[in-house]
Amino acid sequence: MIGLFVFALPMYMLIGAGFAGAVVGFAVLGLLYIPQLSTISATFPAIFPAHVRFASFAVT
Fold first, then answer.
1. pTM higher than 0.70, yes or no?
2. For 1-60, where are the alpha helices, taking DSSP H only?
């Protein structure tokens, strides 16, 4: 999360600089976002008790 916070704005500015910058910017942002996605997928099911877990995800 710290990496996303620090590098988000510079990478978005790099994305606007051209094609090579866009490739590098998207790659860096993607690599920084992967750890967040991996922890969220394990955390969200743990938030809900077992008897409401499937109903809560079915609604969303």
1. no
2. 2-15, 19-47, 50-59
Comparing CA positions, the residue from 1, 29, 2 lying closest to residue 13 is 29
pLDDT digits (tens, 9 = 90+) for 23-36: 988 898 889 888 88
Q: Tell me, what DSSP letter sits at residue 44?
A: H
The Cα–Cα gap between 29 and 34 comes to: 9
Burial of residue 21, with CB atoms counted within 10 A of its CB: 0-12 exposed, 13-18 middle, 19 or more buried: middle
Residue 25 CB contacts under 8 Å (≥ 6 apart), including other chains: 11, 12, 14, 15
How many CA atoms within 13 Å lie on the side-chain side of 14? 15
Rg (C-alpha) for the chain, rounded Å, is 17
